[in-house]
Queue: 2 jobs
Job 1
Amino acid sequence: MQHEKYGNVVRVAPDELSYMTTDGWRDIYGETPAAKYGMKRSDDIFAYFFDKQSTEAIIVSANEEGHSRLRKIFSWAFSKPALTAQEPPITEKVGLLIQNLKQAQSVGKVASSAPSQRSNPFDFVVKQGRTFHRYREGKYPLPNDFREQERLDFQHYFMLTLLDGKLHLAPIGENPQNVLDIGTGTGIWAVEFADRYPSANVIGTDLSPIQPDFVPKNCFFEIDDAEDEWLFNERFDYIHMRAMMTCFADPRSILQKAYNQLAPGGYLEMQDGRFPLQCHDDTLQGTALDRWAKACVEAGEVTGRAWNNAKFYKQWMEEIGFEVIQEKVFEIPTSDWPKGKKAKELGLWFHEDLMDSLSGSKVLLTKTLGYKEDEVELLLMEVRKNLKDRGVHAYMPV
Ligand SMILES: C[S@@+](CC[C@H](N)C(=O)[O-])C[C@H]1O[C@@H](n2cnc3c(N)ncnc32)[C@H](O)[C@@H]1O
């Protein structure tokens, strides 16, 4: 649709272009010298070399088939060590690409559908061996590297298990039109939703540019801060936010923005857990696990981004004026300690999720609460033991 409106090249997000035809590539890259370098140039593959002698190249392809062919040929370059080694030059080249793009945009060759970026979103911040978002640096406390992305994708399947395979609980019907996923993370929910509902135009927004390149054609990603004024042109039938605890300084105002952005009869669905962990007996009391979860809550109080917002969603929705509000609360065990097949399965999923998130919390505890690094390591060692102990009957309300 955007191509029909704007032409061959559309910027669908600050870091993402959509190309409709090979002419679109030429608009940006010009004629390419690929043949000179022994590359076959066809309608679906172009290669852009920075200079004759250089072994560095940006490989571009005009369609998915061409891209996966090139990925195979250059598979050695996508190994983890190779990617790590290439990160600085890639970041530099991406900067150049964005610069070229801006030039092309200034002469009307590229249409932009996303607000302009004030900093290079590819430029991640590295702290204690993990990477964090650079755009609006410091707002969100957890990392955004591959390890965290895997955790988020894992968490997605865990949430699907909780909801018996459903992507949503709101009764949105079979033909949703405009759908918004705030804080989309790796975009896994948005992609699956777009596949499941071809009628829908799905927009996913996030502070981190960690969404995939190849997505259904009705799915778009934008780098955007949900705490800014919402500038969407459309009103949405359905707005989705999942796992957004500790994201917002004023979460009630985000619910208000969602309310204002809904089409008449539209739905907002929040799927969120909350900290600290809970327990129906006294087995959590005095454990490192309890201390860790409470320390996260305390750090959230210091940064002004609470970990227990989900407790207030219903009340805020009532105050804002939402109609027909339904709240469902599930108890997710921290391991397979409870009885029952589904509870055990959820416990195992959540156990892995928590284990993975421990390292991601280190920066928060050291930088915000002033813990020493080795102090946190010791605490986390004990937390891991508690998590493995089926005698600790902790759960998180979701
Ligand atoms: C725990 S992840 C959840 C990701 C996704 N919703 C899911 O369920 O898979 C929280 C996400 O919210 C994003 N986020 C945090 N603060 C944000 C903000 N102010 N605006 C947009 N996204 C934000 C983070 O970058 C992160 O990707």
Job 2
Amino acid sequence: MRGSRFTALLLARPPETTLQCPFCKAPDTRVIDSRLAEDGTQVRRRRGCEACGQRFTTFERAQLNMPNVVKRSGDPEPFNEDKLRRGIEHALFKRPVTVERVDHAVDSVMRKLRASGERELPSRQVGEWVMEELRDLDHVAYVRFASIYRSFEDVNAFREEIERLQKHPTAEQRKSQMSLLAEASGKSGDSKPPKS
Ligand SMILES: [Zn+2]
């Protein structure tokens, strides 16, 4: 019977690789939910540990070669996602930005690195992409990062940057401006006046 042989073959395949619990180190965790993310380029899985009950999320994506990053000294080094994330988190220290939005910023910079198709990119370019993300996330973090990264030549250059920022609200600010506008047009009188 072909059918049963086929089934036997399927059963004989090695089990799906298991993932250890990052909390209690139990050797196996269960997939609770799987869905596509980032326009289908990622699989996002919610996993649960039956030993300790903790839940966590994993992302799976195709491993494409990332370009090397050429430092100011001229030395190339392999792209390092942890380093990118630490740089962004450092700028965002104690700022009200969620982990999800940090993840998104890291992904976005990495997508640009991959999309460049280059084998090497100057670290300056990566820094510019990080600044684009931070400008949209949090202006304080942006200024922290930019002041180190771009080492503003003088006070005027710094002031110009701050003025540019004021014309470029973050995603959060845009959202709250929208809701203030909606409030102002929707309700009369009792809504809070927009902050100037
Ligand atoms: Zn566990």
